[in-house]
Each structure stands twice: as C-alpha cells, then as structure tokens.
Amino acid sequence: MGRAVFGVSLRSSVRAAVAFSFLSLAGAHAWAASEGAKPIDGGILKVGLGTDTAIIDPSITGSSITAVITRNIVDSLVGQAEDNSFTPWLAERWEINGDNTVYTFHLRPGVTFSDGTPLDAAAVKYNFDRILDPKTTSSYAKSLLGPVDKIEAPNANIVVISYRQSFAPLLQGLSLPYLGIQSPTYLQKATSTTNTIVGSGAFVLDSFVKGSGSKLTRRADYNWGPDY
Description:
By secondary structure, this protein is an alpha+beta fold. The chain has 7 helices and 10 strands. A hairpin with a 5-residue loop joins strand 5 and strand 6 (102-107). The radius of gyration is 18 Å and the shape is globular. The N and C termini lie far apart (37 Å).
C-alpha cells in the first residue's frame, strides 16, 4: 500500500492543535512549549501517513486512514474526552430514557456546512437514513448506529433516535468520524462520494487522490468545535 500524504493550510495555531490531536502530537507540543517555542500563525502542515485509503467518505468505509483525514472535515453530534466522558459538539445536550431505547439530541443553532447548507435536524436525519439504507453499503457506520427503529426530526433543532431494543453504545459511535454529518445538498447531487466530501468541520477538502494524498484548507468561519 502506498504512503499517503495530506497537507493542510493553517491560519490558527489553536485550530491546528485541535485538528491534529488525533495524531498524538501532544508529546511534541509539550516539548515545544517547554523549549519556549512560539505558535506559528499560517503556513502549510504536511503529514505523512503509513498507508492509504481508497475512499474518503467515512460513511461507506471502516478505514482508519479515512477517519484520520475526515475528522478534520466532518463534525459529530458528540465528542469523547480523554476520561471517556461524552461532551457536547453538534448536540448541545441530550436525554436518554431509562432503558437506552430513545435518545433525544438538541442541536447547536447556527451551524452550517462549508457549502452554506444549514446543519439542522433534517440534515442529521438525512445522513443517518442514508447510512441505514442498504443501497449505501454503510456496513461499519450502520453497525455503529445499531438496531434503529426510527429517526425523527420533530423540529429544526431536535433529533430523536428510537431503538427496537436497548442500545447503550450509541454515544461512542456518534463521536466517531464514521457517523460524522455531511451536507445533504452535496450528497444529493454527488454521483460518487469516494473522493469528495462536504462537512461542517474546521477544514475543507480541496482534493483527494488515492496514492497521492489529500489537501485540506482551514475554514475561516468555523467556531462550534468541542474545544471552543
């Protein structure tokens, strides 16, 4: 498998640290801080990955490399902290009934995808319905959603996921890029999602070429990540 490289244009050292926390750069960051290094504003960060992925759409692959890249492009309903607790992200808060069969998520208002489409309850429902549709072949993402009975969007800010039986691991699955939310406008128009993706995340995918890598650019108006 070829070595993949993806480059990211950066304009904020804070956003850079958030975006690449998954690459375990905390140790290097701590070392730089101890050396008195000053954050660099702007520039291009090139990251080498030991393997490659054939698909950039996290909904239709279980590739860990896809997850590494798209974590910067798609947001999740919830985050997961180092102590394994779940934190607000696209969902400001949520309620779970006593037997883990009904999850109600209250979405953060004002979030948009990079194409300008609002990220509302209808958008979340569209994404999860797409994953559950057998035609999408989302085997891994579908397993993370579990035995869903129905998904409802009673208004623009509320998503309700109901189950046929108790399903306790939902929050953990929702925190992963595989269940990250993509633009329905993009998904409805795309003839293929294997090499393109439009999300609401801190970075926008400029290009993805299997074997050559990906190029991402920071989204200037992003301000709803879990660390903001």
